[in-house]
Write a structure and sequence with these properties.
This protein is an alpha/beta fold. It contains 14 helices and nine strands. Helix 9 links the parallel strand 6 and strand 7. Helix 5 crosses helix 6. The radius of gyration is 20 Å and the shape is globular. It binds phosphoric acid mono(formamide)ester and norvaline.
């Protein structure tokens, strides 16, 4: 059999494995439908979702101007400084409640939102996967219209991106995106804050993401729509981010996005090397297949050496040590992953203050 024939055969068997994975279909369909929405109504840029009665939804990073994003980050820095100094007197969320809907597991998102909101005087309510059952127990638009009557803000971690758009459309309180199959904007605000703390800037930097072109990547790309920096996604063929999202930046965004299939080359001169799990939540049954596909894409000591000594290592966590990154890199001198995790709370406080019109 020729090489091309062998490779075709391998692809066919991969396709069979993927077809057995129900989640892959859900995930890809979700992104595909979302791209269709983008083409049709620009809902993906937030344009098609009505704003809440008061304040702003936080659904995608680029729903905001660069100035607004910068203001959120500056607020985050101030509130972080106050909390770090032991000054607990700032209580802008006093008397406010936040409903938090989770259809997927979480540690950082749940705890950072709940703790951050409490520290600034508010009360957060955790609604886990068995409580609300989005799309199963009752219609998403009904959930939105009921929850916003009790709560000043709704935070949600959901599978389908359309569901968060629908929640926002029907909620008179601001809706904050705590991750969907498509994006994770709060994470990237925390990453931007971490970059500011270590590099002093976002603009003019080179951020190289090595791994799957997933929800984290889509939010990085959307940050590049507003800030002028170079974002490179080094991923295996077939695992590229959504092309419509890449086009959004490259056809008029502030920054520049490139796709590479050569991670060792891509990381050269990087200010940040970033990675995430190869199989996201809901894709775990593809983990073995992906381990084969992602050979050469592990962020290890060799890759950090190729990036150079000034490169930071970031990971949204949870990390699967020994798979997408090595233990040595997570624990190494270039790693700032735990500061990055802490910054989830501070960045989200900044986002919430702005979305609620309190900053
Ligand atoms: N990074 C992040 O969102 O972590 P969790 O899944 O633990 O919330
Ligand atoms: N891409 C990962 C991010 C986890 C914070 C996932 O969706 O599981």
């Amino acid at each position: 059999m020729s090489d091309a024939g062998r490779s075709r055969k391998a692809c066919e068997s991969d396709r069979e494995i993927l077809q057995k994975s129900a989640y892959r279909k859900v995930s890809k369909r979700s992104v595909a439908r979302a791209s269709a929405v983008l083409e049709k109504t620009q809902t993906y840029t937030g344009v098609g979702v009505d704003p809440p009665a008061k304040g702003h939804h936080f659904l995608h990073i680029d729903d905001f101007s660069k100035e607004e994003l910068w203001a959120m980050l500056q607020t985050s820095i101030k509130v972080k400084e106050a909390l770090k100094s032991g000054d607990n007197s700032y209580k802008p969320f006093a008397g406010l409640t936040m409903a938090m809907i989770f259809t997927k597991p979480s540690m950082r998102t749940r705890v950072s939102f709940e703790t951050g909101f409490f520290k600034l005087g508010g009360h957060a309510i955790y609604l886990g996967p068995d409580t609300i059952q989005i799309g199963k127990r009752e219609a998403t638009k009904d959930i939105a219209r009921v929850l916003c009557r009790y709560n000043d803000v709704i935070m949600a971690r959901l599978f389908a991106h359309e569901d968060i758009l629908e929640l926002a459309q029907y909620s008179s309180s601001p809706v904050v995106n705590g991750l969907t199959d498509y994006n994770h904007p709060c994470q990237i605000m925390a990453d931007a804050l971490t970059m500011i703390e270590h590099k002093g800037r976002i603009e003019g930097t080179k951020v190289v993401y090595v791994g799957d072109g997933n929800n984290i990547v889509h939010s990085w790309i959307r940050l590049a729509a507003k800030f002028d920096f170079e974002f490179v996604c080094a991923c295996p063929e077939g695992y590229e981010p959504d092309p419509a999202t890449v086009a959004l930046v490259n056809e008029g965004g502030a920054g520049k996005v490139t796709i590479s299939h050569n991670p060792l080359e891509a990381v050269k001169g990087a200010d940040v090397v970033y990675t995430d799990v190869w199989a996201s939540m809901g894709q775990k049954e593809e983990a073995e297949l992906r381990k084969k596909k992602f050979q050469g894409f592990q962020v290890n000591e060799e890759m950090m050496a190729a990036a150079g000594p000034d490169a930071l290592f970031l990971h949204c966590l949870p990390a699967e040590r020994g798979i997408e990154c090595t233990d040595g890199v997570v624990e190494g001198p270039q790693s700032v992953v735990f500061q990055e995790a802490e910054n989830r709370m501070h960045a989200q406080n900044g986002v919430l203050l702005h979305c609620l019109g309190l900053a």
